[in-house]
Amino acid sequence: MRGYRLLAVVAGALGAVTGVAYGLVSEQSRRARVVIGVPDAPPLRADGVYGVAGSGEGGGTPVRFAVLGDSMAAGLGVDDVTELPGVVLATGLADEVGAPVRLETYAISGSTSRDLAAQVDRVVADPPDVALVIIGANDVTTRLSIPVSAALLGAQVRRLRAAGVGVVVGTCPDLGTVRPIAEPLRSVARGWSRRLARAQRVEVERAGGVAVALGDLLAAEFRARHADYFSRDRFHPSATGYEAATSILLAPLCGVLRHEWWPR
């Protein structure tokens, strides 16, 4: 996702303000765009087998783990492949289930829920055992309607489930934690992302997936330790930030893989 798009969106959402207030919003947008900038490289990739087989010790047929979504799913912001959320989760899954895990990354930086269908097309052509989807931040930055965004996500979760894939979705993060965005822009971003996350959860669970509320569970940590939890661009998570996210995603992924954790 791109920081400058977020600033344009939240400024537009405050279009009713005039005079001095409008000038303040415009100046905040300009300053934040300068600070955030544009990522100078795509996310790292490290697909392959992790765990028992990855260490050269054998271990049988690998469990297949797919990652779909946007730049957060892809791991934009880390400096080493070992810090990628997909790699961390694949390694954790292998340890928990006692079998090697093959990581397959389909996530593309900048994706919105409209782009998920193309990723799911590739996944269901040869379905994995379990999939993680993280999506929503770019839906906010592109002002995609919350009901439409959530429904698009639900439709793709339904396709994955119909193909026999266990699905965990990390819902939209709280964009109000991004420090370069000053108030009142930050409050607009926070409110929009939280509403989207709630709508996503309803649609995901209705479609048979498991939703994890990343914003609710992580926002306080990201606000309190922003210097540690954000990468150099101050917009995407750092390795520490991703570690916090993976720590709450691993348990539901294990539960889904073991058929122990499903919506009621």
Automatic annotation (TrEMBL):
Residues 67-244 form the SGNH hydrolase-type esterase domain. SUPFAM superfamilies: SGNH hydrolase (SSF52266). GO terms for molecular function: phosphatidylcholine lysophospholipase activity. It comes from the Bacteria. Signal peptide: none annotated. Pfam families: Lipase_GDSL_2 (PF13472). InterPro entries: Ester_Hydrolysis_Enzymes, SGNH_hydro, SGNH_hydro_sf. PANTHER family: SGNH HYDROLASE-TYPE ESTERASE DOMAIN-CONTAINING PROTEIN, THIOESTERASE 1/PROTEASE 1/LYSOPHOSPHOLIPASE L1. This is Lysophospholipase L1-like esterase. It comes from Saccharothrix saharensis.
